Automatic annotation (TrEMBL):
GO MF: sialate O-acetylesterase activity
TM regions (residue ranges): none
Record gene name: Siae
Superkingdom field: Eukaryota
Lineage, opening ranks: Eukaryota, Metazoa, Chordata, Craniata, Vertebrata
GO biological process: carbohydrate metabolic process
UniProt xrefs under Gene3D superfamilies: SGNH hydrolase
Database matches in InterPro entries: SGNH_hydro_sf, SIAE
Name of the molecule in the record: SIAE acetylesterase
Length: 564
C-alpha cells in the first residue's frame, strides 16, 4: 500500500468510491479484498502494476458508513492486511502555523485533550513537512500514521507539530453533527506562502514567476517528469537527496518560500485520495517573539533573526495577487483531486477557509485588511461566482494579544472550528436552513440633506458596540490604482469608513460614526464628508476590534465580515 494507508484509517464512504493504490512488481496482478469483522469477504478487486515506478490503483465500490473492516492486498505469495478500517468522510486540513497549532496549545487545552477518548471514530493522520522541486508520487515521511486520538501520544504531541487543533475540533464537531466516522488528514507547514502550495499552472494563471524565492539553491527546477501531464496519469520518479529533503519538527515554523515545493511534496502525493472536503488556514505573516512590541515591518525586519519563523506568508508577500492565487489554487486542487481519484472526489470539492485574524494591536499597515478582502476574491462573502462551493470562518474578532505563541497565533480555535463547522454543514452537507455567515450589506442609501448614509444588511443585526472609527467614507477622486498606491494611514481600530469626492483632492478615508442601528440597517453620519460619497469600508484594520467585540453580529453570534 502507499504510505498514507494504514491500520485505523478512514476511507471515503458512498456515494464516492475510495481509491486504493500501492507499489508492486511491474506487470504483476494485485488482488485487493475487503472483509468484515467475521472475516467474510465483502468485495474483491484486481489491478495490474503499471508505470515507470511500479504502482497499482483500484477504486472500491461505494460503501455505507461504518466498520471495522480489513483491507488486504496480495501479489503472488506476498500479502499485507490493514485492520480497523472505517468508512466515513475524509477531510484534508492544510495551511501554515495556525493550522499546525496543536490541541496542546489552544485555550482550555487540558479539557479538550481529556475529551479525546470520547471520539474513537474520528481518526487522524499527519504528513511530515517536506519540500521537493518535482512532483512526488508518494509522501516521503509521515509525522503521525493513522491513529485513534489520544491525549498524550498524538493530540498533545507538542507545539506546531501534530495534531492540528482546528482540524481536530472541526472533525470532532462534524462527527457530533453527522454521526459518521471522520478521517482527518493534516498537511501543514508554518511560515509558508500560498505560492509554495500552488502548482506551476496556478502561478502561470496569476502572472507570478515560477522561480521566485529567497532560498538560492532550493529554487525549483520545473523539469519533473509530469511537466505536461495530468496528475492522474503520471508521477515523477523517486528523488535523490539533492532534490528533496524532509524536515525535523523544530523547523515546523520556518517553511520554504519557493513556489510549488509544497504542492510537489505534500499535496501531489495525496491526489489519489478520495476526499469529502478541505479546510485551509493560511496567509498570516511569520511568528514573532511574543511580548515584543513590533514596529511596521520592512523587508529587512521580516527576515531578521527576531522572527521565530522565516516565512513571510501572504500578509506581506504578493498580498495583492491573493485575489488570483487563492481562487486559482482552489480550482486547481479541485481538478487535481477529481482527476487523481478517477472522478471519485467531486469536481466542486467543498473548500472551507479561515479569514485572517489579527496581529499587531496598533498598526498603520493595511496588508491584513487587504488580504482578508482578497481571500474572498474581492467580493466580501463566499460562496460567490469566483469561489463557488466555498465557506469562510471570520476570525478578526478572535485576537489574542497575550498568546504565549505570539499574537499572530490566537488560542481560541474553538470558535474558529465552530464557524467552519457551520459553513461545512451548509455548503458541503446541504443544510440550507442553517445560518453560516454573518450579516453583509446589500445596499446603501444616501440622505444628502441630513448628511446620513443608511446601510441595509442581509440579516438581523446585533450591535455589540458603537465604535466611532468602525465605518469610514473616502473623499476625493478614487481609483483602484490610487488606492493601492496610497494605502491606509489610519492607526488602531478602524471599523466604518466612507469615501467622498470633491473631484479635486485625492481620496481620503474619513470616519463615519454610527448614529443608529435598526433591525437590518445601520445609519452613519457623514459630517466630515460634504461631497459625493465614493466608497465605504468596514473593519479595515489589522486589529479591527477587541475579542468578540466588533460592532456588528447576527443573532447567531457570527460577526459581520469586513468589506470595501
Amino acid at each position: 500500500f502507499a504510505s498514507y494507508y494504514g491500520d485505523h484509517m478512514v476511507l471515503q464512504k458512498k456515494p464516492s468510491g475510495a481509491v486504493v493504490w500501492g507499489h508492486g512488481e511491474l506487470g504483476a496482478m494485485v488482488t485487493v479484498t475487503l472483509s468484515g469483522p467475521s472475516g467474510l469477504i465483502i468485495m474483491g478487486k484486481t489491478a495490474q502494476v503499471k508505470g515507470h515506478s511500479g504502482t497499482w490503483t483500484t477504486v472500491l465500490d461505494p460503501m455505507d458508513q461504518g466498520g471495522p473492516y480489513a483491507l488486504t492486498a496480495e501479489q503472488g505469495l506476498e500479502n499485507m492486511t490493514l485492520r480497523d478500517i472505517y468508512f466515513g468522510d475524509v477531510w484534508l486540513c492544510s495551511g501554515q502555523s495556525n493550522m499546525a497549532m496543536t490541541v496542546l496549545q489552544v485555550a482550555n487545552a487540558s479539557q479538550e485533550l481529556a475529551a479525546a477518548a470520547h471520539y474513537p471514530y474520528v481518526r487522524i493522520f499527519a504528513a511530515a513537512p517536506a519540500r521537493s522541486d518535482v512532483e512526488l508520487e508518494d509522501l516521503e515521511q509521515i509525522d503521525l500514521p493513522w491513529s485513534i486520538p489520544t491525549a498524550a501520544e498524538n493530540l498533545g504531541h507538542g507545539n506546531f507539530t501534530y495534531f492540528s487543533a482546528v482540524c481536530w475540533l472541526l472533525g470532532r464537531s462534524l462527527y457530533e453533527a453527522l454521526g459518521s466516522p471522520i478521517g482527518l488528514v493534516e498537511v501543514a507547514w508554518g511560515g509558508t506562502p500560498i505560492e509554495a502550495w500552488s502548482s506551476r499552472q496556478v502561478l502561470q494563471a496569476c502572472g507570478l514567476p515560477e522561480d521566485k524565492g529567497r532560498e538560492g539553491p532550493q529554487i525549483s527546477l520545473w523539469h519533473g517528469a509530469c511537466f505536461n501531464l495530468k496528475p492522474s496519469l503520471c508521477f515523477a520518479p523517486p528523488l535523490n537527496l539533492a532534490l528533496s529533503s524532509s524536515t525535523s519538527p523544530h523547523q515546523h515554523l520556518s517553511g520554504p518560500q519557493v513556489p510549488s515545493v509544497l504542492w510537489n511534496a505534500m499535496i501531489h502525493p495525496l491526489l489519489n485520495m478520495t476526499l469529502r472536503g478541505v479546510a485551509w488556514y493560511q496567509g498570516e505573516p511569520p511568528f514573532l517573539s511574543p511580548g515584543v512590541e513590533q514596529p511596521p515591518l520592512s523587508h529587512r525586519a521580516l527576515t531578521s533573526p527576531s522572527f521565530w519563523g522565516t516565512g513571510e506568508a501572504n500578509a506581506f508577500l504578493n498580498t495583492d495577487h491573493y485575489n488570483c492565487t487563492f481562487p486559482a489554487l482552489i480550482a486547481d486542487w479541485r481538478w487535481a483531486f477529481h482527476t487523481g481519484s478517477a472522478g471519485q472526489t467531486e469536481p466542486l470539492l467543498p473548500f472551507g477557509f479561515v479569514q485572517l485574524s489579527t496581529y499587531r494591536h496598533r498598526s498603520a499597515d493595511d496588508s491584513f485588511a487587504r488580504l482578508r478582502w482578497h481571500q474572498t476574491a474581492d467580493l466580501g462573502v463566499v460562496p460567490n461566482v469566483r469561489m463557488p462551493n466555498t465557506f469562510m470562518a471570520v476570525a478578526m474578532d478572535l485576537g489574542d494579544e497575550q498568546s504565549p505563541y505570539g499574537s499572530i497565533h490566537p488560542r481560541d480555535k474553538q470558535n474558529v472550528a465552530h464557524r467552519l463547522l457551520l459553513g461545512a454543514r451548509a455548503v458541503a452537507y446541504g443544510d440550507k436552513d442553517l445560518v453560516f455567515q454573518g450579516p453583509y450589506p446589500t445596499r446603501a442609501i444616501l440622505e444628502v440633506t441630513r448628511g446620513l448614509l443608511n446601510v441595509t444588511y442581509s440579516q438581523a443585526l446585533i450591535c455589540r458596540q458603537r465604535d466611532a472609527q468602525a465605518f469610514e467614507v473616502r473623499s476625493g477622486i478614487f481609483s483602484p490604482k490610487s488606492y493601492e498606491r496610497e494605502g491606509n494611514t489610519d492607526v488602531g481600530f478602524s471599523l466604518p469608513q466612507v469615501c467622498c469626492s470633491s473631484q479635486v483632492s485625492p481620496c481620503q478615508w474619513l470616519p463615519a460614526p454610527v448614529v443608529a442601528v435598526g433591525s437590518h440597517t445601520v445609519t452613519l453620519a457623514l459630517s466630515g464628508c460634504r461631497m459625493l460619497v465614493l466608497g465605504l469600508r468596514y473593519a479595515w484594520a489589522e486589529w479591527p476590534c477587541e475579542y468578540q467585540a466588533c460592532p456588528l453580529y447576527n443573532p447567531q453570534g457570527l460577526p459581520a465580515p469586513p468589506f470595501l
